[in-house]
């Protein structure tokens, strides 16, 4: 039993174990049933299902998906779900049965969703990736990933299906909220930080989980912004843009990767050998595990229609490089027979099994398969993690408008504040998709945050919901207008919702009280599978805003949403606008921190916000040839990439490049002086862009190639420095290989893509 000897090299242990396995046991390692279906939680007791026991005894199960996941899809609620301690105990019971009742005692791989926190009851809910990207704070995001890994591993989860590295090209797409933004360089920096944070110093650490990069690749560029729609993308763009974050994360040591549902140029990603073998394994040297998205293999036969039936789909997938199937149905039903009939070579099966076993050994599961319930209880939802969630939200909220310095509001004084809107006090609406059920007390809404900040003067805070996200009911307008009339300032909290139907009922529009009914109202207009034709506010929210504006009081709009909102009327008439995206469980406190000036806003947009949906695509790094205007308007977004206001002002000066001429393969130092010219301390995101003046292949006018978030006191000046070399100057040339062409480049440094200083850098031919 060499495989049980931890002193032996991993590959020797894998070879030994593989040689002992039957065909059924090998296939068992490649399937991943739904974890929440393996047990029943009755009266505080965990009872394993007979179907799971039978599956273990008949060849084994390699992995479980979402063992700790809770949401309407799983049917796991706050009442039936598992506490942090009970979750760890349940994992241990399942793991113990799998080890003790299978012939070879191979531990399970527990895979969990952790895009913005472990999707389990009690876990900390951080802001969604769109907010996290808006922080432009790589170190802080890495710290969050470390915290997520601690919480997940403490309960027995060993793999997470994150980070999401899709480059968003059409924000009508419902999964925009799960992504960092539209720029591949920024996403790459966060991708590396994610792998470093999640995987830590070693996969076998009790503080580490294996990262799974998804969705490989081009998922954010679907036709019409429709989820899993076809992608029409040239090879050069694929290499330069969408593959870049994945490549950087693979180089950082990512242990797992997940192909996307869609097709590129007629080939589904699940069976794309060029991507899964030629690029990923041969060119990049990836030696980890490849797992499908849920149901992706079945889709080959009933959706893409590139397979005759389930057996053909399963064979195509494993031959293309798939190692494990999430949900496990196709592999479970067809692989054993495929091998026995000669349709599938044993060597192909063995290769997939080898990769799964290797990951299990790297994770230390054979030595330490069990969770620590005491540690889970201590770590999950800890005070430190909650504080981190608030800090991330505070740094990710973007101030888009601040007319006449209406913000920050005065925390001291007698003026009343009317907090109005469908997202003012609905906790689920600010959490985003892929979130577990939450007790009401855990989520700080905007109303909660403002009331907490003004706890010494509760009479200053008034509230009315006004309307819902969706629907045409105006029954709450009268109460909202009456409430606003009593106030000096209106804080109007609008936006969207990715809240699944948790059966929580809705709110009484006339009183704002929770109203539990037999039929819960769904405000969901964003999230996976919720793609839109429009970027306007849903329902009658804009109508409510217009009526409130007629009262003539200062109106501060706070957006809580999962994709950009294009509402020209609000852009023009609101006195101030905060874009919070989905800011997580501490989002309301963070919004209040900014509204009252306890935090100086430092979030910057990672996705362009258009004036109108008709401008799409509007991402900043499109080609020069795309044109400058339409008949009705220009092609510039309302708020450009990198944009965000502060309560202070920053100026840029003395942009220099030294030397001004470098050889191919050489480097130059770019420096600029940044000064806080205002009266408040604040953080500025200094952004470096490069433009190739002339190239053999068309290029964007500007591309982000570096950034630094710096903190400056009033009057303070700092010299910011970047290094520019091959990494920043190369592009994919005519032969589809990276090249740095000799010639002139423009170097830009500034506060956002349309507000920069510029100078020239010349690359001479070797």
From TrEMBL:
Ranges of residues in domain Fibronectin type III-like: 684-753
Taxonomic placement: Bacteria, Bacillati, Bacillota, Bacilli, Bacillales
Keyword terms of this UniProt record: Hydrolase
InterPro entries in the cross-refs: Cellulose_Degrad_GH3, Fn3-like, GH, Glyco_hydro_3_C, Glyco_hydro_3_C_sf, Glyco_hydro_3_N, Glyco_hydro_3_N_sf, Ig-like_fold
Protein name stated in the entry: Glycoside hydrolase family 3 N-terminal domain-containing protein
One Pfam family here: Fn3-like
A single GO molecular function term of this UniProt record: hydrolase activity
């Amino acid at each position: 039993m060499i495989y049980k000897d931890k002193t032996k090299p991993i590959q020797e242990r894998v070879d030994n174990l593989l040689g002992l396995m039957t065909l059924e046991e090998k296939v068992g390692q490649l399937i991943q049933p739904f974890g929440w279906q393996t047990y029943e939680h009755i009266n505080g007791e965990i009872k394993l299902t007979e179907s799971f026991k039978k599956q273990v005894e008949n060849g084994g199960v390699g992995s479980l998906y979402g063992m700790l996941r809770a949401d309407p899809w799983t049917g796991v609620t706050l009442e039936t779900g598992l506490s942090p301690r009970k979750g760890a105990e349940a994992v241990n019971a399942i793991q113990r049965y799998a080890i003790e009742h299978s012939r070879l005692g191979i531990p399970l791989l527990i895979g969990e969703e952790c895009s913005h926190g472990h999707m389990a009851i009690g876990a900390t809910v951080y802001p969604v990736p769109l907010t996290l990207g808006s922080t432009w704070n790589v170190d802080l995001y890495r710290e969050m990933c470390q915290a997520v890994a601690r919480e997940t591993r403490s309960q027995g989860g060993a793999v997470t299906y994150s980070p999401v590295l899709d480059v968003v090209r059409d924000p009508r797409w419902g999964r925009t909220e799960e992504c960092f933004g539209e720029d591949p360089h920024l996403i790459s920096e966060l991708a590396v930080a994610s792998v470093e944070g999640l995987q830590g110093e070693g996969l076998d650490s009790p503080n580490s989980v294996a990262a799974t990069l998804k969705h490989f690749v081009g998922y954010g560029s679907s036709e019409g912004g429709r989820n899993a729609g076809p992608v029409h993308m040239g090879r050069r763009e694929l290499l330069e843009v969408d593959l870049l974050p994945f490549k950087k994360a693979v180089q950082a040591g990512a242990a797992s990767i997940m192909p996307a549902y869609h097709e590129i140029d007629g080939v589904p990603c699940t069976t794309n050998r060029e991507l899964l073998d030629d690029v990923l394994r041969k060119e990049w040297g990836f030696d980890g595990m490849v797992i499908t998205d849920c149901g992706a293999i079945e889709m080959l036969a009933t959706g893409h229609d590139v397979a005759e039936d389930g057996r053909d789909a399963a064979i195509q997938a494993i031959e293309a490089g798939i190692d494990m199937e999430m949900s496990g149905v196709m592999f479970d039903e067809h692989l054993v027979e495929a091998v026995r009939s000669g349709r599938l070579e044993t060597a192909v099966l063995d290769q997939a099994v080898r990769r799964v076993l290797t990951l299990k050994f790297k994770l230390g599961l054979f030595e330490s398969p069990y969770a620590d319930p005491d540690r889970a209880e201590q770590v999950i939802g800890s005070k430190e993690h909650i504080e981190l969630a608030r800090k991330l939200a505070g740094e990710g909220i973007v101030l888009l408008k601040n007319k006449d310095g209406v913000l920050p509001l005065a925390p001291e004084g007698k003026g009343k504040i009317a907090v109005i809107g469908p997202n003012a006090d609905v906790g689920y609406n600010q959490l985003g998709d892929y979130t577990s059920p939450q007790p009401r007390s855990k989520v700080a809404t905007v109303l909660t945050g403002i009331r907490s900040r003004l706890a010494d003067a509760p009479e200053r805070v008034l509230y009315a919901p006004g309307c819902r996200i969706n629907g045409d009911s105006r029954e709450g307008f009268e109460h909202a207008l009456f409430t606003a009339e009593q106030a000096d300032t209106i804080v109007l909290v609008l936006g969207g919702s990715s809240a699944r139907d948790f059966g929580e009922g809705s709110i009484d529009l006339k009183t704002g009280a929770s109203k539990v009914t037999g039929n819960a109202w769904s405000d969901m207009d964003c999230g996976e599978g919720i793609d839109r034709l429009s970027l306007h506010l849903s329902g009658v929210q804009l109508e409510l805003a217009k009526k409130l504006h007629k009262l003539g009081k200062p109106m501060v709009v706070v957006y809580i949403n999962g994709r950009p909102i294009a509402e020209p009327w609000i852009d023009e008439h609101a006195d101030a606008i905060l874009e919070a995206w989905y800011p997580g469980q501490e989002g309301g406190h963070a919004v209040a921190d900014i509204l009252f000036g306890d935090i100086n806003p430092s979030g910057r947009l990672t996705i362009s916000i258009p004036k109108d949906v008709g401008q799409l695509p509007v991402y900043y790094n499109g080609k020069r040839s795309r044109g400058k205007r339409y008949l009705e308007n220009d092609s510039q977004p309302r708020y450009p990439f990198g944009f965000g206001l502060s309560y202070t002002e920053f100026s840029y000066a003395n942009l220099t490049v030294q030397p001004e001429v470098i050889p191919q393969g050489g480097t130059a130092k770019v420096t600029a002086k940044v000064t806080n010219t205002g009266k408040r301390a604040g953080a500025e995101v200094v952004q470096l862009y490069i433009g190739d003046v002339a190239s053999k292949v068309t290029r964007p006018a500007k591309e982000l190639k570096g950034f630094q978030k710096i903190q400056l006191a009033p009057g303070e000046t700092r010299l910011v420095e970047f290094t520019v070399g091959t990494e920043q100057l190369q592009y994919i040339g005519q032969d589809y290989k990276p090249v740095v062409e000799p010639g002139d480049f423009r170097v830009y440094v500034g506060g956002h893509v349309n507000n920069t200083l510029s100078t020239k850098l010349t690359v001479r031919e070797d």
